[in-house]
């Protein structure tokens, strides 16, 4: 039996559409145990306890890549990373499944092979990169292959993660975006994306505040989150550095270096939206980890 641990991830970070991704210290733990025959899945909703399960599909893809097979497999999932909320749940499933197969067969695939296979399944590398490598990752595709580089994140930076009680699908979030953008808007984005990554690494709150002001996707996607403007106002009231939509939403994340302010914002969110989840998270350098049990 092997145990795999994968972090939650947050993509885009406002100005880094489809290229920035961050690993957060909220983890899914998944065990894979070879059994005599068949497929058994525990810890998922009944509707996902079948061969369409993404953990299982990724596990099978990993076996096929290595030319291996098993008689049967039991997959047990322990996670509170919510589905379809913009915290990389699909990347978590894919990376865990591939890593589980890899660990069962003595880790014959390196992390870059996992990165390639996982991106093939996910379709883009922004969540996959931090799920595998940890930290703040910048990723891009070239000749059909994913590439990435990792930045550090200042350790005093806190991520107040506000999770609504409804989903926003990636498909819906992409459909609201325009097909083209102007050169001056592209220049606006590129400068701020580069500045934000470095500012998060060195903890420059002033540059984070100025740089994390997206014009490419959030002006359109915020319409899918009815509470967006009110949440942004709450973030200003509590002196957050900035706030952004995590991935395609519905989760929103506020940045601060003050733990007391983070706790105040969490309480405000819980009071106004009792059915929501609000967590104070930190960046983690722990990408996917596996061990034989």
Overview of this structure, please?
This protein has 293 residues and is an alpha+beta fold. The chain has two domains: 159 residues, Ribosomal Protein S5, domain 2; 124 residues, GHMP kinase, C-terminal domain (Alpha-Beta Plaits), CATH 3.30.70. The protein is built from ten helices and eleven strands. The strands form two sheets. Strands 1, 2, 3, 4, 5, 6 and 11 form a seven-stranded mixed sheet that branches. The chain has a four-stranded antiparallel sheet with strand order 8-9-7-10, sandwiched between helices. β5 and β6 form a beta hairpin.
Distance between the first and last residues' Cα: 6 Å
The CATH topology annotation of the largest domain reads as Ribosomal Protein S5, domain 2
Which CATH class of the largest domain applies here? Answer: Alpha Beta
- Please give the share of residues in helix: 25-40%
Shape: globular
Structural class based on helices, strands and sheet pairing: alpha+beta
How big is the Rg?
A: 19 Å
Count the E strands: 11
Question: Which CATH architecture of the largest domain?
Answer: 2-Layer Sandwich
Number of helices: 10
Question: How many domains?
Answer: 2
The fraction of residues in strands falls at 25-35%
Summarize model confidence as the mean pLDDT: 96
The biggest beta sheet is recorded as: 7 strands, mixed
Order of helices and strands: EEEHEHHHEEEHHHHHEEHEE
Outline the low-pLDDT stretches.
none
């Amino acid at each position: 039996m092997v145990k795999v641990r994968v972090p939650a991830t947050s993509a885009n970070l406002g100005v880094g559409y489809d290229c920035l991704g961050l690993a957060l210290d909220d983890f899914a733990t998944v065990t894979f145990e070879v059994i005599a025959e068949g497929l058994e899945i525990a810890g998922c909703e009944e509707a996902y306890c079948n061969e369409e399960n993404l953990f299982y599909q990724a596990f099978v893809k990993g076996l096929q890549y290595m030319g291996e097979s098993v008689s049967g497999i039991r997959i047990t999932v322990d996670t509170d990373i919510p589905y379809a909320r913009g915290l990389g749940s699909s990347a978590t499933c894919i990376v865990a499944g591939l890593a589980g197969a890899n660990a069962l067969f003595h880790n014959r695939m390196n992390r870059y092979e996992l990165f390639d296979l996982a991106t093939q399944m996910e379709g883009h590398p922004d969540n996959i990169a931090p799920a595998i490598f940890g930290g703040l990752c910048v990723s891009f595709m070239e000749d059909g292959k994913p590439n990435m580089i990792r930045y550090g994140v200042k350790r005093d930076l806190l991520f107040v993660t506000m999770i609504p009680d409804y989903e926003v699908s990636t498909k819906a979030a992409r459909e609201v975006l325009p097909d083209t953008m102007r050169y001056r808007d592209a220049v606006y984005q590129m400068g701020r994306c580069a500045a934000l990554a470095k500012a998060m690494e060195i903890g420059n709150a002033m540059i984070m505040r100025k740089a994390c002001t997206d014009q490419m996707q959030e002006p359109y996607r915020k319409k899918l989150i009815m509470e967006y403007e009110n949440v942004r106002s709450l973030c200003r009231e509590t002196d957050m550095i900035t706030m952004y939509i995590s991935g395609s939403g519905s989760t929103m994340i506020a940045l601060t270096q003050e733990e007391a302010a983070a706790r105040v914002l969490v309480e405000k969110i819980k009071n106004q939206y009792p059915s929501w989840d609000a967590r104070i998270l930190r960046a983690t350098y722990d990408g996917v980890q596996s061990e034989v049990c």
